[in-house]
């Protein structure tokens, strides 16, 4: 639902199990909602007032994708799960070496598996593993390591290539991981801003659009999705505002991001605690 008093586009993403995947756990008990973002500070971060969604709210968030032969629609965010052998293989290499070359075989196996499951991939995909400590309200970092907060895409360091958009996320850790989501595409944010009196909102850059939207509607509720070890989420090519969350965790948060390059250069922001390992894969 749009913020109170704002009419306009009602397009929003729905959650589903990605076609050709069979998960051991349902969506029940894995989704929380809060009351928006903290009203001060940059980057944007969620308010820490999470509550479990009701059965009625959960029903409105979910959609079954009919048929195993159906592609995951751009209007849906798809829950998935990788084989345990791949997750264990990554940890074996991580304990043995930190060189990019040692991960090539593991990541090749992962890409082969996800392509077999018919998930859409560009010709070149960047795989980045971020390791973050417990207790953080934001973990989302771009290719430069700079803290991004809630955003549609990742800004590079100044003069170092294009921005990157996340295609999917996979929890490689041994403990549950959390993804923060605003399940609204850019077109919906722009339509709601224009309905609220912000002219030319559709012409704003993705980063400006998100910041301007939360400036108008700081109490727009966010979702927190729990991913068990080996589980992941495939995002929409339209772009999804998301971040990570490690408050309440005891172990390191280890998340793989699959990204593609988009748009132009953006400015760099300060670096926050965390480590990133990245590698580029092609067809």
Widest beta sheet: strand line-up: 1-4-9-6-11-5-12
Rg is 18 Å
The low-confidence runs, each spanning 5 or more residues with pLDDT under 50, are 4-9, 265-276
For the biggest sheet, the summary is: 7 strands, mixed
- Average pLDDT rating: 84
- Overall geometry: globular
Number of strands: 12
Distance between the termini: 40 Å
Walk me through what this model shows.
By secondary structure, this protein is an alpha+beta fold. The protein has one domain (14-64, 71-282). The chain has helices at residues 55-61, 84-96, 104-116, 186-195, 206-216; strands at 14-17, 31-33, 51-52, 76-81, 124-132, 163-171, 177-182, 223-227, 231-234, 241-245, 253-262, 275-282. 19% of the residues lie in helices and 25% in strands. Helix 4 crosses helix 5 (206-216). Residues 4-9 and 265-276 have low confidence and may be disordered.
């Amino acid at each position: 639902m749009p913020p109170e008093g704002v009419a306009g586009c009602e397009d929003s993403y729905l959650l589903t199990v990605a076609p050709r995947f069979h998960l051991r756990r349902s969506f029940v008990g894995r989704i929380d909602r809060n009351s928006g973002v903290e009203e001060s500070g940059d980057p944007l971060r969620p308010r820490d007032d999470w509550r479990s969604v009701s059965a009625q709210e959960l029903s409105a968030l979910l959609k079954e994708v009919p048929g195993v032969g159906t592609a995951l629609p751009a209007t849906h965010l798809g829950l998935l799960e990788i084989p345990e052998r791949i997750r264990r293989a990554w940890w074996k290499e991580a304990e043995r070496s930190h060189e990019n070359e040692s991960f090539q075989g593991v990541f090749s196996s992962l890409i082969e598996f996800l392509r077999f499951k018919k998930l859409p991939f560009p010709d070149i995909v960047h795989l980045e593993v971020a390791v973050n400590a417990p207790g953080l309200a934001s973990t989302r970092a771009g290719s430069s390591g700079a803290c991004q907060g809630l955003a549609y895409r990742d800004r590079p360091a100044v003069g170092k290539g294009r921005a990157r958009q996340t295609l999917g996320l996979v929890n490689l850790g041994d403990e549950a991981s959390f993804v923060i989501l605003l399940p609204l595409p850019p077109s919906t944010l722009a339509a709601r801003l224009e309905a609220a009196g912000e002219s030319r909102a559709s012409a704003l850059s993705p980063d400006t659009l998100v910041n301007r939207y939360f400036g108008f509607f700081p109490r727009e509720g966010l979702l927190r999705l729990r991913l068990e070890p080996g589980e992941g989420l495939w995002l929409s090519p339209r772009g999804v505002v998301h971040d990570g969350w490690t408050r309440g965790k005891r172990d390191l948060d280890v998340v793989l991001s699959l990204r593609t390059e988009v748009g132009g250069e953006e400015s760099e922001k300060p670096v926050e605690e965390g480590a990133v390992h990245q590698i580029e894969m092609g067809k």
